[in-house]
Each structure stands twice: as structure tokens, then as C-alpha cells.
Amino acid sequence: MNVVVTGGAGFIGANLCRELTSHPSIGRVVALDDLSTGTAANLAGTDVELVEGSILDRDLLEGMVAGADAVVHLAARPSVPRSLADPFASHEVNATGTMRVLEACRRGNTHLVAASSSSVYGSVADLPKHEDLPTRPLSPYAASKLATEAYALAYGSAFGLPALALRFFNVYGPLQPAGHAYAAVVPAFIDAALRGQPLTVFGDGHQTRDFTYVGTVARVLADAVLRKVTSTSPVNLAFGTRISVLELAHHLAKTLELAIDIRHEDPRRGDVRDSQADDGLLRSLFPGLATVPLEEGLAETVRWFRSLPAYA
């Protein structure tokens, strides 16, 4: 089996590529990445073939997908704040780019697994979030990810394309970058704590999130490819855990064995107040799925950070 991973040199993509290469039935893994957020170093020591390029390059994409048995589409322009700064760029990569991937897959009826986001639920207050709830995006990023999943499922319905759209919830773990303005909360907190700087909390810190360890996500994605899992509706990829941002900070302080200072700033536009997944549909499609507890996942993430020269 040959697999193409768009965004394969990124945080989730590189973890997935490593997982895929561990399966004997998968012969070739090709990562397509423009290296705007991912790095070639994330794939160091693997047998993954890295092709530097964009999902907006139709000819390149179609040539790569032509020899693939499955495509995992992770390439995206991430971050709510980044989408507020440049909405059109988020639309072009996340929506138009997805269309390019879908068209390439349609030519060979290639199985597609596409990454959506819990941000599509937006202002819907119900908890836990289940897939039958309405979607009310609060940011251009969220709207573009809603387009991603909607197009994937529409191609499944209209053209019979075997497709699965997974809604990611606050994925964290090794290879997730820090040290930039759009860093996710877990790496941003670890980076600040290891540098002896205050942890920045936007708003009161009581907003809640459902954190999912990247190793679990990679295993789900690999299993979806191997078993050619499809669904006519989007599927949450999280497990119903829910902690506040302040609780996360204190968990990390314990894991790091460091005292921390917290600095509050104004809430950010486009941020969802509370997030928690209903995992019923996920578990029906992936029975027996084992999860990584937050404490274990944070400990593994901290070990990775401390292995980096910048924190040695």
C-alpha cells in the first residue's frame, strides 16, 4: 500500500508518517509539504519520501496521488489568529487546497482521510459536542475547515469517493512547534516555563478544551487508512476529556517540577469558550481504541522539549 500525506512534514503529519512506516503492509509513504510550518527535520531518520511543494500545485498533486492507495489530507494554514490576520490566505489553502486534493483523488477513486477541526462548532454551547449539532464558526479558520469537511463528504456523496472527515480537538505532543506568535497552548506554555517566563493566558483561563495526544491521533489515522474507514458524516477525534486552561497550566507545572507565573491578557477574537467531544461515533468506527491520559501525554511532550538543544 502506498500513502500520500499532505502536510506530512508538519506536527501531526510527521507523527503520522512515522506511524505509517511501522506497518509492514504499507510500502511507501510520501509526504507533500511546502515547509511553511513543517520542517524536513521532523522526518529525519525515517524512510518517508519528502516532496517539497504545495497542494495548490495541481500538476504536482495529481502526479503524486496517481500512484497512491490512500491520501491523508493534513495540509492547512493553521491558527485562528492567523486567519484573522489574513482570511483569504486561510481560505485559499484550506478550502481551495482541499478541492485540489479531492479532484486528484477523484481521478483514481483514491481513499481520502481529511482533517477538519472542532472549531467548526463555534458558538454552539452544547456539551459534549456531537456531530449532529449545528456548526457556527467564529473565525475564518473555522469556516475554512468546515469547507474542508463539507467538500470531502460532498465528494463522497456525489462521486462515490471513499472519504472520512475527522474533527481534531486540540492535538498536542512531540514535534509541535513553539516560539512563534501562533503557537498552540501546550507548546507555548512549555516553552515559556522552560525559559522562566510567565505563561500567557487569554481571558480568565476558565475556558475548557479537550486535549488529544498526537500519538493517539496518528494511530487512528493509520488505522483508517489500513481498513479504508469511511463515514457519511464528520467524526470527532477526541475522547470527551475537558479541563480548563488554568488547570492545564498547573498540570504542566507539576510535570515540569517548576514554579510558574501566569499573565492574563484580553480574550482573543474567534476563540471558542468550551470544547469537549462526544466520542460515540469515533468508538463505533474504531472499537477498542486506547487513549493516552493527559498526564502521560504531557510528560512525553515535556521529555521531547527537554531533548531539544534550545532547552538543554
Description:
The protein has ten helices and 13 strands. The protein is an alpha/beta fold and 312 residues long. The strands form four sheets. It has a seven-stranded parallel beta sheet, sandwiched between helices. Strands 7-10 form a two-stranded parallel sheet. It is globular and about 55 Å long. The N and C termini lie far apart (40 Å). The model has no long low-confidence stretch (mean pLDDT 96).
CATH class assignment of the largest domain? Alpha Beta
Write down the CATH topology of the largest domain. Answer: Rossmann fold
Question: What is the H/E order?
Answer: EHEEHEHHEHEEHEEEHEEHEHH
Structure annotation, total helices: 10
Give the strand line-up of the largest sheet: 3-2-1-4-5-6-11
Q: Which ranges are low-confidence, i.e. pLDDT below 50, for 5 or more consecutive residues?
A: none
CATH architecture of the largest domain: 3-Layer(aba) Sandwich
Estimate percent helicity. 25-40%
Q: How would you state the average pLDDT, rounded?
A: 96
Sheet/helix structural class: alpha/beta
Q: What's the end-to-end separation, in Å?
A: 40 Å
Largest sheet: 7 strands, parallel
Index terms:
globular, UDP-galactose 4-epimerase, domain 1, 312 residues, alpha/beta, 39% helix, Rossmann fold
List the helices and strands and how they pair.
Layout: E1 2-6, H1 11-21, E2 28-33, E3 49-52, H2 58-65, E4 70-73, H3 80-85, H4 87-108, E5 111-117, H5 140-159, E6 163-168, E7 171-172, H6 185-194, E8 199-202, E9 208-209, E10 212-213, H7 214-227, E11 235-237, E12 243-244, H8 245-256, E13 262-265, H9 280-285, H10 294-306
Parallel strand pairs: 1-2, 1-4, 2-3, 4-5, 5-6, 6-11, 7-10, 8-13
Antiparallel strand pairs: 9-12
